[in-house]
Amino acid sequence: MNKVKRTNIKKERNLKRRKKKYSMKSIDYGLLCGIFLLLFIGIVMVYSSSSYYALYQKDVYNSDFYFIKEITWAIVGIIGMFITMSLDYHIYKKWTPWLVLITLGFLVIVLFIGANINGASRWIRFGPLSFQPSELAKYVVVLYLALLIDRRKGKIRKFKEGTLFYLCVAGVFAGLILLQKNLSITAIVMMVACVMILVGGAKLSHLFSLVPIGIAAGIGLIFTQSYRVKRLTSFLNPWADTSQDSYQLIQSFYALGSGGIFGVGLGNSRQKALFMPEPHNDFIFAIIGEELGLIGCIAIICIFIFIITKGVSIAIQARDNYGLLLGIGIISVIAIQAIINIAVVTGSMPVTGVPMPFISYGGTSLVFNLGAVGILLNISRQSKEEEF
């Protein structure tokens, strides 16, 4: 009986210490405001960039078509964000194994019944709706790695049982995404995995030892597909073929150059008038540069920097290692996508199909990004307080 009482007393003391150290508080409103600001800009720019394109698109002929769909998905995403924001993020530890199985199932199914668009099968259609499993996979990988690294704390410093094991776990998802001819999302999944593994406590030497293999694999994957080779050559010399492989990038240059410092004015873009292919998607940043100028581009980059800084701060202040890893993973997905999108639009890297988070048109991407931000906001509610 004495042992039982002592155990209970210890548990009560530990619980009191935790209550003193951690407390539920309000969410990080700075992050929430930053996300809503980007979302507002995104909705406005989707309407501005897509109105002319939609008006002349076959089977659409409605300038408000993409604008209405974007608002609809934004509402769904905001509802999802408030739901994930209200759920204790530790509950995902129980859900993660099921989410992994569901996601892997979708990644396999899309290979067989996926809608073929521009030579790639990345979408599963449900009547008028479409779903891109790779967008879900990005965040499920984050959830799964956060769970595994947290549970296997002592093994992260080892090479085979730590770094290599976690990269292989991410590699399973990345491999299935690669089969969909989606090298860009494959690369994002592996980059986010590397960031989480490093933050989790892996040795730098272990990660650096795999860099040559990663570079060799990347080069090999590029040269196994002719369209990837064309993208690389068009990036190295975009002016060699301005009417074919480099066409979209050249139109992006024209848009950014026409915008100058102050832009031509909201709604006054000329490149969106059937010059830029699907201007509301991956190259929407070019239309922003044309209409809002260099000032508008810098403002958006500053908002992203603010959001990324906030996200990293929330992760560092998380109450436990699981929260730290989860927060870093979520903000890494957003940061890496934004960096790649801006680099592509400005011709700093080969053209890839990576949308700009919260701004580019796309329902699946927007909903999952907002849902993930909700998890990040919940982590901020349970952050550590300074001990006195």
From TrEMBL:
The chain crosses the membrane at residues 26-47, 67-87, 99-117, 129-149, 161-179, 185-202, 207-227, 283-309, 321-346, 358-379. It is found in: Cell membrane. It is an enzyme of class 2 (transferase). Pathway: Cell wall biogenesis; peptidoglycan biosynthesis. It comes from the Bacteria. It catalyses: [GlcNAc-(1->4)-Mur2Ac(oyl-L-Ala-gamma-D-Glu-L-Lys-D-Ala-D-Ala)](n)-di-trans,octa-cis-undecaprenyl diphosphate + beta-D-GlcNAc-(1->4)-Mur2Ac(oyl-L-Ala-gamma-D-Glu-L-Lys-D-Ala-D-Ala)-di-trans,octa-cis-undecaprenyl diphosphate = [GlcNAc-(1->4)-Mur2Ac(oyl-L-Ala-gamma-D-Glu-L-Lys-D-Ala-D-Ala)](n+1)-di-trans,octa-cis-undecaprenyl diphosphate + di-trans,octa-cis-undecaprenyl diphosphate + H(+). Keywords: Cell cycle, Cell division, Cell membrane, Cell shape, Cell wall biogenesis/degradation, Glycosyltransferase, Membrane, Peptidoglycan synthesis, Transferase, Transmembrane, Transmembrane helix. It is a multi-pass membrane protein. InterPro entries: FtsW, FtsW/RodA, SpoVE. The keyword Transit peptide does not apply. The keyword Membrane applies. Its EC number is 2.4.99.28. NCBIfam families: ftsW, spoVE. PANTHER family: CELL CYCLE PROTEIN, PEPTIDOGLYCAN GLYCOSYLTRANSFERASE FTSW-RELATED. Belongs to the SEDS family. FtsW subfamily. Peptidoglycan polymerase that is essential for cell division. This is Probable peptidoglycan glycosyltransferase FtsW. It comes from Clostridium gallinarum. The gene is spoVE.
